[in-house]
Design brief:
The complex is a heterodimer of chains A (278) and B (572).
Chain A: H1 29-43, E1 50-54, H2 62-65, E2 69-72, H3 78-88, E3 93-99, H4 100-106, H5 108-117, E4 121-127, H6 162-169, E5 173-178, H7 182-194, E6 198-204, H8 217-220, E7 222-223, H9 232-241, E8 246-252
Parallel strand pairs in A: 1-2, 1-3, 3-4, 4-6, 5-6, 7-8
Antiparallel strand pairs in A: 5-8
Helix pairs in contact in A: 1-7, 4-5, 5-6, 6-9
Chain B: E1 3-4, E2 6-14, H1 19-32, E3 36-43, E4 51-59, E5 72-75, E6 95-98, H2 107-110, E7 115-118, H3 121-126, H4 133-145, H5 149-160, H6 165-182, E8 190-191, E9 201-205, H7 206-217, E10 221-224, H8 231-243, E11 247-250, H9 254-266, E12 271-275, H10 277-293, E13 297-303, H11 320-325, E14 334-336, H12 341-358, E15 361-367, H13 368-372, E16 374-378, E17 423-425, H14 439-454, E18 463-466, E19 471-474, H15 479-492, E20 497-502, E21 504-506, H16 510-516, E22 522-527, H17 533-541, E23 548-552, H18 561-569
Parallel strand pairs in B: 1-8, 2-5, 5-6, 6-7, 10-11, 10-12, 12-13, 13-15, 14-15, 19-20, 19-22, 22-23
Antiparallel strand pairs in B: 2-4, 3-4, 3-16, 9-16, 14-21, 18-20
Classes of the chains: A alpha/beta (278), B alpha/beta (572).
């Protein structure tokens, strides 16, 4: 999080736009939006000092539903766009919203490098293990036997483990939340935003339309039984053996966030010409 | 013995032999003495062990194109030199210096009738402690070109100062040996003395000029993914941006690079990336996003032979189609093309200014020929184009990011501006930026983006228009220099030819071209493509009021002034 202009007495409503959210009734993303605005209020950030950046998919509709600056970009590239914004505008709090298709499939390479680069921003992936907006195709986190029109009988391909990938790639904060617990999620988001460097928060957010089975998630999720760790080895073991339903902050590292040396901006441009003068 | 206004030298050696360094030294000596020059490299994609040649044309006047033929060719070795084919043209007047231990001179030399003189450069270098054959070659070339030992030594002191006294001494001995070997060789052409001038002079590549133009235009953020032949733009920008309070960020791929600059520009920082054809292909989708969300960005494409990996180290003008038509949907954007090393500075600065003013993505089509050429030039004039975005700074009431109005440009709020919060979107949107699929909003925003380009007055910089003949030579990009020289030769034959070279390729300027073509009876279109992309582009967008001939061929061979002159002469 950047040097903040914080305000006292902020309410979640201050961070909502006038636009009425459109998702399927029962979609987990409604609650994620609620968690966003609660986290912003908790932090007391000025809405104009927050930028919410997204790609394409159901999850990526979020920026327009906030009263913050937003960017709804192309599919899979939100992290890159956010990186360009944050390094040039370190005064802003940058939050990136994505989904399992946008973030892990088409945007997979950017995920690796965003973790590695460790720019001070927060990356929220709403994982529903399906492409919802295109009506039910398997994503990188879909179970191998899950039957779809595109992959009858399932993909037969093992799902991707985003938290492990994040840890191995250098993310500085790793957490998992459940959309059905908006207060807990808001607390974790606020922590993620506060923590320096690249914070990754996976939010299990059910797609009730194409994955009605995910309604059961509310019974499967549980707070992680062991406290958070700053030890990468320990975190790796935990994440590798985790069943995907342990909630909370799972890893909090202390890597120095990405920083670029900026020069002074008052140099006479003719100085640069010296490279060429005969 | 008459003095010649221009003289051309090629030095050939396998990669790592120092041929390119040697030619660069010759250019430095000549430009310090007041001559103009253009140094191009021709090499394979290998780093070491492949073929390499440095091609240098020195002149009393600015040099913007390659020579038709070389006066002097030095082969430190001829390993793989046959791969150059006809890139290094020799003739009966050419003097070739060949190391007998460097292999057989290639057919391009032996079949040309050129005079070959053997000098054992490798053996001479071996007899000197720390000696290198390319320093012998430097001595030979310097002697034949009429430079003094002192001129060359002064440069060696400057260039090799960091390498220690022993390295300098070894080079001095080698250079002297080269001077001695060349003393008795008859070499007719003599470069006329430089024209005295008070102009401050620069030595730089087109890629460096491009980068400086970007900073002068206001760019303070660059995203970088390496690609030949554009990388030097990014490498020069990295330390230079830091000096002016800017930032360069290395991206994981071109998809990231283009999105990074969109993010930076959305935050209020003028931003650029540089790439070549394959990278431009990857960036095209996000250029559509920048068009729709009206985020100013500059993308420099230093064109190389394509498609696919093509010929990464050689020039072509074949990205014209993708630059103009590559974006899906109706996506008005700007495409500009510099015309010389020097013009890379002006055009990139102007491009940045236009991108910022019109809040529109802008492609600058440079090419390998001028991008990687190093030229000794007069310092380009300062121009006043500095990007000035229309910003919404104090907002009261409802803010409309995409408000409709005259001129099409609407005020942009950057994050941090209270009351200006909006979501930039690639979805079709309303004036406030809210996504919509309504027909009227779609039409209105398409009109807005078109109008801001169509209603803008681009002024006289849109093209280079010279001369009054009734034959018009229409060309673009780095071929403008060769065309200008060909027209000069035609004028010497008593035949006036008009030059028309658009610097602004998109949006098209039908009225301006019509005015430029007034009274023309023949139109000769010249371009470096296989398929005639520029010719087709002209046909699609402009009325060509006279018979047209198209002269086009692909790379990697540069199109010379001699070839264009012949095309003109054939149509007198």
């Amino acid at each position: 999080m950047s040097s903040l202009t914080t305000r006292m007495g902020c309410k979640p409503g201050d961070y909502k736009s006038d636009l009425k959210p459109i998702w399927c009734p029962g979609c987990g993303d409604y609650h994620v939006l609620m968690s966003f605005t609660r986290a912003f209020a908790q932090l007391g950030l000025s809405p104009e000092m927050i930028a919410v950046v997204s790609g394409i998919g159901c999850s990526s509709r979020i920026p327009a539903y906030t009263n913050c600056y937003g960017f709804h970009g192309v599919h899979g590239r939100s992290l890159a766009l956010a990186a360009g914004l944050k390094v040039t505008r370190p005064d802003l709090t940058v939050v990136v919203a994505s989904g399992d298709g946008d973030g892990y499939s088409i945007g997979g390479n950017h995920f690796l490098h965003a973790c590695r680069r460790n720019i001070d921003m927060t990356y929220v992936v709403m994982d529903n293990r399906i492409y919802g907006m295109t009506k039910g195709q398997p994503s990188p986190t879909t179970e191998p036997e899950f039957d779809t029109a595109l992959t009858p009988g399932g993909t037969g391909v093992a799902p991707f483990h985003p938290l492990v990938v994040a840890l191995a790639s250098g993310a500085n904060f790793i957490a998992r939340c459940f959309s059905g617990e908006p207060n807990e999620t808001a607390d974790v988001l606020a922590e993620a935003i506060r923590h320096p460097g690249f914070s990754f928060v996976e939010i299990l957010s059910p797609c009730v339309t194409f994955r009605p089975d995910e309604k059961d998630w509310k019974d499967l999720v549980r707070p992680a039984s062991v406290p958070e760790t700053d030890d990468q080895g320990r975190a790796a073991r935990r994440l590798m053996t985790d069943d995907g339903f342990n909630l909370g902050i799972l890893y909090r590292g202390n890597r120095t966030p990405f920083q670029l040396a900026r020069g002074t901006s008052n140099i006479d441009l003719s100085e640069l010409e010296k490279d060429f003068e005969l | 013995m008459t003095a010649s206004p221009s003289i051309s030298i090629a030095i050939v050696g396998s990669g790592g032999a120092g041929a390119l360094t040697t030619v660069n030294f010759l250019l430095e000596v000549a430009s310090a003495a007041g001559w103009h020059g253009l140094f191009t490299r021709t090499l394979g994609p290998q780093i070491r062990g492949g073929e390499a040649a440095g091609l240098l044309r020195l002149a009393v006047h600015p040099v913007e194109c390659p020579p038709d033929q070389f006066d002097l060719i030095i082969g430190i070795d001829w390993q793989n030199a046959h791969r150059f084919g006809s890139e290094i043209k020799a003739g009966p007047e050419t003097l070739v210096i060949s190391d007998p231990r460097g292999g057989e001179p290639p057919p391009m030399v032996t079949q040309s009738g050129a005079r070959v003189v053997d000098i054992p450069m490798k053996d001479i270098a071996k007899s000197i402690a720390g000696g290198r054959p390319n320093m012998i070659a430097l001595g030979i070339a310097s002697r034949l070109l009429g430079f003094t030992v002192e001129q060359v030594f002064a440069l060696i002191e400057k260039q090799l100062g960091g390498k220690g006294a022993a390295a300098i001494e070894a080079s001095r001995v080698g250079i002297k040996a080269g001077f001695k070997e060349a003393a008795d060789i008859k070499f007719e052409p003599r470069l006329a003395p430089p024209i005295p001038s008070d102009a401050r002079r620069w030595l730089l590549s087109g890629n460096e000029a491009t980068a400086l133009g970007a900073i002068r235009g206001g760019v303070r953020f660059a995203a970088a993914y390496p690609i030949t032949p554009a990388t030097e733009i990014l490498e020069w920008l990295s330390p230079s941006l830091a000096k002016v309070g800017g930032i360069l960020l290395q991206a994981e791929d071109e998809l990231a690079a283009i999105n990074m600059i969109i993010g930076a520009s959305y935050g209020g920082t003028p931003a650029l990336t540089a790439t070549s054809g394959p990278g431009l292909s990857l960036m095209i989708e996000a250029m559509g996003l920048a068009t729709a969300s009206e985020i100013p960005i500059v993308v420099v494409d230093v064109m190389r032979g394509g498609p696919s990996t093509g010929i990464p180290t050689k020039s072509e003008q074949t990205d014209l189609n993708i630059a103009i038509y590559g974006l899906h949907g109706d996506a008005p954007h700007l495409v500009l093309a510099p015309q010389s090393v020097s013009d890379c500075l002006f055009t990139t600065q102007w491009a940045t200014y236009l991108a910022e003013t019109l809040q529109t993505p802008t492609i600058v089509l440079s090419d390998q020929f001028m991008g990687q050429a190093r030229a000794a030039i007069d310092r380009p004039a300062d121009v006043a184009f500095i990007g000035k975005r229309t910003l919404a700074t104090s907002i009261t009431g409802a803010y409309k990011r995409y408000a409709l109005g005259p001129g099409g440009v609407s005020a942009m709020a950057v994050p941090g501006t209270p009351g200006g919060q909006y979501t930039a979107d690639g979805l079709t949107h309303t004036e406030t930026g809210i996504p919509t699929s309504g027909a009227a909003d779609h039409r209105n925003q398409l009109d807005k983006r078109r109008d801001k380009l169509d209603q803008f007055n681009f002024g006289d910089h849109w093209a280079s228009i010279e001369g009054t003949g009734d034959l018009a030579l229409v060309t673009w990009g780095s071929l403008t220099g060769a065309a200008r020289e060909a027209i000069g030769r035609a004028a010497a034959d008593g035949f006036n030819v008009r030059l028309i070279a658009p610097r602004l390729l998109s949006p098209v300027q039908p009225d301006r071209l019509a005015a430029a073509l007034e009274g023309v009876k023949r139109i000769l279109v010249v371009e470096q493509t296989h398929s005639g992309q520029f010719h087709r582009y002209l046909r699609a967008h402009y009325d060509l009021p006279a018979p047209v001939r198209a002269f086009h061929r692909p790379g990697p061979l540069p199109i010379t002034a001699g070839e264009i002159h012949r095309a003109i002469t054939d149509w007198r």
